[in-house]
């Protein structure tokens, strides 16, 4: 997604992408300060120059990136060509973001025997372009002219831009102890230079802080969550995943899909993170449900595919929607987010207790079910058509790239299309909301939803089954079943729509070498004519995809398959998240190569966001699968896979109580902890039990 010599910091919806020297430069289109889908700064560079050697440069020595920000260590260029010539300086640049502020702290150490006079110059510039206009992220759209102004002060300046629709955005930049030396403003850019001098004694060091404060700011919802999971097979992984999810949580209280280009709410992504983390972080799940329920559609609009009951695909900000050059504010071009929402409401009720489901949340789930049922055909299948709009999506499932659905021979599927996993999501939603209705005493609705679910399951197993593959079709289209084995069928397992008598066949097909790699499941079988390991959705490996399939295998008690997916998935995540300090880890997708000369499925995809929320959530999804977590009679249960090695521990939140689960060897213990504080959960009694530990 960004070049290897770039790195990013993200928090509270603000992203700062820096280049090899740890700053934002206008000659690197990938770099910038972004928030609210706007590039607030295209240049934010702190240049450090020795007065006596103004043309000397810098070489990168080290780089670390992650939830705490980006640290870049530079050394002064060698002063001559002789071996061992002394380098004068060591420079460390720390970039952090949060609460609409970007901070760059530059620390310089003088390694010479003389006092050095240093010029520090902050250069900032912006045209306040929309993120869709940035060539480093997308196939850039034509830029919009925005009037820019600069209001300078002694050590700072406010750069502002006004769009044709009248909205204004601003960045106030400041260099500690500096003096504004020049400003520039016009119809295409605003810029400022702030400078200061440092006298640096021999062997001493000094730090200078530059900041950028962005406005308008957003009010914040803070879903407090602190999942506690550990597995000796992947030390540090779950702490890194937690820190990553916290960094990606937007001011609205919902995780952004991924950085740098998807720092916005995406319904499907957030819902799947909610499923992955639910037993460990129910407050995050509740925050996701609350946010999406507030944005559930109640009207109809063909331009944005808005229909009553639908859950949005994404919600973008910035000025392009107001200018009629974007339809994603919000956009409802998704066929799966709506049943997933209803299913997650039901799952949240199972873990938090039916009393935790407010009337508003329950009504939103019913509205989602109504859309799911009314959108279905006589068999209950939910279909979609490509959105005939210049900014619309061709495909409305999670594989939403233009060529994501292909028939044998590589030809595109003929719309309309009914995806295998979407029918599974609908089935799970129907069953789950039926249970909620039963808890509220609505027996008539319970019966209707259960009957609808059974009818859908029968039709799915009749129409989607491919006898020759002993697996389900990827989809149905206008020409019949799309004969393609893909990872989508793993989602169908997770939903429960697969009858036990066919589960083993489906699982065995997914574990075949043309689908399973060292890092997880390919999105398309390597034996399919459309397979392309470098594509976005037709052969790549997505961690979240494999985690959903792992939970599906656990549902059918296939320990061997669950362990195969869990071990591969966790190992691939750990390689990126804990093995390389210069990387965040948790990439959106990996290249699904099938080559003896490379690690199959482990190569980072060039178009991948990193980090991605549902990849960070995948660690918890794999933990759910490995520990076999569920709820029975209002209490959590664990049935770990027999192949689970080492020690695994977690804190679970269920019905207002916290429980410790510990597995080692042949022993598994689930015991209540003292006092619960789970937001929104049933809590009709406090836990009187002491903390229980065991050596297994």
Automatic annotation (TrEMBL):
Sequence ranges assigned to domain Putative glycogen debranching enzyme N-terminal in this UniProt record: 11-207
Region listing for Disordered, in residue ranges: 148-168, 298-317
Classification via InterPro entries: 6-hairpin_glycosidase_sf (IPR008928), 6hp_glycosidase-like_sf (IPR012341), GDE_N_bis (IPR032856), MGH1-like_GH (IPR054491)
Pfam family for this entry, one: MGH1-like_GH
An example Gene Ontology biological process: carbohydrate metabolic process
Secretion signal, residue range per the UniProt entry: none
Limits of the Mannosylglycerate hydrolase MGH1-like glycoside hydrolase domain: 337-573
Record's protein name: Amylo-alpha-16-glucosidase
